[in-house]
Predict the structure.
Amino acid sequence: RICPLSACSRARNACSTFRQAMTARELGQALRRVDGEDGAPRPSLMRDVWDLLALALPMFVGIASFAVMKATDSSLVGHTGTRYLKAVALSDLWTASTGVLIQSRAVSVFCAQAYGAGRMHEVGVWLQVSYAVLFTVMTIVAVLWLLTGTVLRALGKDDTIAGDAQYFATTLMLCLPVRIAFSQLSTFFSCQKIIRPSATCATTAMLTNLVLGCVFVLGIPFPGWHGFGFHACPWVTTCVEYGQFALMWLPFFFA
């Protein structure tokens, strides 16, 4: 005689083995499809490289825009005199050392994970969290930038150089909110493979900063006028950075 309970147990084991076998076969078919053994076209290496560059290059332009504008400022100031160039170099040394506190890219990790998992609401939540954290840290950075002249005097620099460096750092301090806003919003878009807005705005800002700098700092191309010199340089950069953020944000705001 066969025990009914034993028969049911053997039947369940057989069904489980059958399901596992089917799962293994399905897994093998999936792996063969990935390897291209079933005749399906497999993306070429050059296609993968091109897709990677299509994402990386515009992201690089957006991230490097601030550094390029700083280099432009130094080049323009260098034509106004070595005194101002020295002041800008000392100012950049201090502001760059403290400005790293607001250059977080952690939002890219969290937003990318949320987007990959299909949790679109969390992508926006992480952007808001990054704004809350970085704007809080920004207050500390702003205070440190306000102390640029004090720090340079404590290091033995004369009052003239320290005063010029203080003016340059204090004016650029006004860029901190919009600089954070642009960098985090660019990262927010790039995590969703939306890279054209940040690249376009960054390229426009770099060219605009160069053109306006030549006009207002050096007086180019107007003959007989030498511009406003050193004191106009940080204001040009500040206005350009606000315009850069507005150019990217306003189209989405009014869409």
